[in-house]
Design brief:
The complex is a heterodimer of chains A (about 280) and B (about 300). Chain A is an alpha/beta fold and about 280 residues long. Chain A has 2 domains: about 20-195, HUPs (Rossmann fold); about 210-260. Chain A has helices at about 20-40, 50-65, 80-95, 105-110, 120-140, 150-155, 175-185, 190-195, 210, 215-230, 230-235, 240-255, and strands at about 40-45, 70-75, 95-100, 145. In chain A, strands 3-2-1-4 form a 4-stranded parallel β-sheet, sandwiched between helices. In chain A, helix 2 links the parallel strand 1 and strand 2 (about 70-75). In chain A, helix 1 crosses helix 7, helix 2 runs parallel beside helix 3 (about 80-95) and helix 10 (about 215-230) crosses helix 12 (about 240-255). Chain A starts with 19 loop residues before the first helix and ends in a 29-residue tail after the last helix. By secondary structure, chain B is an alpha/beta fold. Chain B contains 7 helices and 14 strands. Chain B has helices at about 20-35, 60, 65-80, 165-170, 200-215, 265-275, 275-295, and strands at about 5-10, 40-45, 85-95, 100-110, 115-120, 145, 150-155, 175-180, 220-225, 225-230, 230-235, 240, 245-250, 255-265. In chain B, strand 8 (about 175-180), helix 5 and strand 9 form a beta-alpha-beta unit. In chain B, helix 1 packs across helix 3. The chains are: A alpha/beta (about 280), B alpha/beta (about 300). Chains A and B meet through helix 1 of A and strand 10 of B.
Chain lengths: ~280, ~300
């Protein structure tokens, strides 16, 4: 008799690898359905020069046509010139309609009344100014704003509340950053955009991973384990550094509020969203 | 009993909450599907086909008695069609002052429709993205029923994920088990099965359909909703599995589609002769019931 050595089996979270062809079909179908249901043919996308907005631009072009995808570049005077160039690269390669709106005057006009503003507040004002522009231009062009936030930054709360997260639809919000990179490669986003360090570009020299203190590759793996229900000590037992798990857990646990609508005091038995429940497409 | 059944399955994309508008589309759909050389005996639709699935508290707005649903289907059929056709279709039901997620088996074409059966969903998914128990009540039984061509049973979506439901239907004589479903797609990772593309959840459905069909020697027909409801994609991918666990038909992903197939009911005889698992189960059933009873009483 052949005695097989004992086998230790363990479950793991769902793979982060993507069937990119399937994901593309899935997201294109999502965009087409949402635009049809809401009665829009055109999209406005804030094109930052980063990989998230690039992938969103590619998907919108597939779903709606390049002629119906309006890319809005919204630089502030301290924004990296490279961001503007990379946004242009996407716009030109897809043949998107382009608008460039310099938000410097609007932002600085507000800052003139708040001379002591710090970096964090400056970043939030810029992000909100960009959404003012995006929503206003959506009205001008009778177009629907499309969000570009990925799952990792949403889970980390790495966005400005009621700014980056405010467009009514978002094709990337359930894809981790590393999955967005994978999809970007499949869709043909230029390497120069995929390979550069991700940055919110709100402060000169800023990078996402520098702000987090952990790489997206590690963060996405740990988030995947946490969201699947594994406890931090179980994740550490699977070979992840305790310090990395703590960084991820702390960011996740401290930002639930950012992924919710404002808290409303409930007095009646028919509180909206508590007892009176209707889905968004009803 | 007929030797064969012409079955058409339809994966339909309703406009959310627009019962009347969707019903109007059914008039044209019946015209296209029925007024052809090889008429279907049965047309099977998905769960909650005329309202959409995720309606939350909107169940109170869209639920209606089975008799009204049958009357409306009959009206849509008779708009452009003559003769008869049987229909399986899911709907939110108001029954005895209570809301259910139900599916009807009804013969259309007469002055009044004939309702052969109403199945009320037993297993209400209330986990993850699902919240059914909050809005509808549990059905409490499964039974097969006689039709013009033979014997059928209905399970709705999660009902079919519990092996015992298909067992009950098959033991009760069902030859075709209809499973109207509304299953949002989940899992975009690569699949090892090159024969079938699609989300991981759809692979699970197909595996389930083939296993249930083969274990019981029945035709097992999963009819999926399609379209997008608030970011949740119903991918289609409806499937008909034969009594040998083989795939008889597979609908495309993402799009509305209909597939017409002729099912040879003698395939059931041949499959059960080769693999008499259902007969073995029937023999052992009294013992199994005692085991189930004992296991069910375990605290």
């Amino acid at each position: 008799m052949k005695v097989v050595a004992p086998i230790v089996t363990t479950t793991t979270p769902p793979p982060l690898a993507l069937d990119c062809a399937l994901a593309t079909e899935w997201l294109v179908a999502f965009l087409r359905a949402e635009f049809k249901r809401r009665g829009f043919e055109k999209a406005v996308v804030g094109m930052s020069g980063g990989v998230d907005s690039a992938v969103t631009g590619f998907l919108c072009a597939r779903a709606l046509g390049a002629e119906n995808t309006i890319a809005i570049r919204m630089p502030y005077r301290t924004s990296s010139p490279q961001s503007l160039e990379h946004a242009k690269l996407i716009i030109d390669s897809l043949g998107l309609t382009e608008r460039t709106v310099d938000i410097s005057a609007a932002v600085d006009g507000y800052f003139a009344t708040e001379p002591d503003v710090d970096g964090s507040r400056r970043g939030n004002v810029m992000a909100r100014m960009r959404m003012i522009a995006l929503f206003d231009l959506s009205a001008k062009y009778r177009a629907l704003p499309v969000g570009t936030g990925n799952k990792t930054e949403r889970l980390f709360g790495y966005f400005t509340w009621h700014a980056d997260d405010s467009p009514p639809i978002n094709p990337l919000g359930d894809l981790f950053k590393t999955q967005v990179w994978e999809l970007a490669r499949y869709l043909g986003v230029p390497d120069v955009i995929i390979n550069k360090p991700a940055s919110a570009d709100l402060i000169q020299g800023q990078t996402d991973e520098g702000d987090f203190g952990i790489s997206y590759a590690k963060a996405d793996e740990i988030l995947n384990w946490l969201l699947t229900g594994y406890k931090p000590e179980e994740i550490v037992a699977h070979g992840f550094a305790e310090s990395d798990v703590n960084i991820v857990r702390k960011r996740l646990d401290s930002t639930h509020w950012k992924r919710k609508l404002p808290t409303v005091a409930m007095l009646s038995p028919t509180a909206i969203g508590e007892s009176y429940l209707r889905p968004v497409d009803y | 009993m007929a030797d064969s059944v012409n079955l058409t399955i339809v994966q339909f994309q309703p406009r959310k909450g627009d019962y009347s508008g969707n019903l109007k589309r059914f008039e044209r759909l019946f015209d296209r599907l029925v007024n052809i050389e090889q008429r279907p005996d049965v047309i099977a639709f998905s769960e909650t086909v005329l309202t959409g699935y995720f309606v939350e508290g909107g169940v109170r707005d869209v639920a209606l008695p089975a008799e009204v649903f049958a009357r409306d289907l009959n009206g849509a059929f008779r708009a452009h069609c003559t003769g008869q056709v049987d229909v399986v279709a899911g709907f939110y039901e108001l029954h005895e002052n209570t809301y259910f997620n139900s599916a009807i088996y009804v013969t259309l074409g007469g002055e009044a429709p004939y309702i052969a059966h109403v199945h009320r969903k037993l297993f209400l998914p209330t986990y993850g993205l699902f919240d059914e128990e909050r809005f509808v009540e549990h059905g409490l039984g499964i039974r097969a029923f006689d039709t013009r061509w033979g014997r059928a049973a209905i399970l709705i979506c999660e009902d079919a994920w519990h092996a015992v439901t298909a067992t009950a239907a098959a033991l009760d004589g069902a030859q075709i088990i209809f499973v109207p479903s509304a299953s949002p797609a989940r899992g975009a990772w690569p699949q090892p099965d090159e024969e079938m593309r699609g989300p991981a959840s759809m692979h699970r459905w197909e595996r389930l359909a083939r296993d249930r069909a083969e274990e019981h020697g029945v035709f097992f027909t999963v009819i999926q909703l399609t379209g997008n409801e608030g970011g949740k994609a119903f991918p289609g991918g409806s499937v008909i599995a034969g009594p040998d666990g083989d795939v008889r038909a597979r609908a495309p992903l993402w799009d509305e589609a209909s597939i017409a197939v002729t099912l040879d009911l003698q395939d059931i005889t041949r499959a059960r002769a080769s693999s008499p698992l259902l007969a073995d189960l029937r023999t052992m059933l009294p013992h199994m019931l005692r085991s189930l009873q004992r296991a069910g009483e375990r605290e």
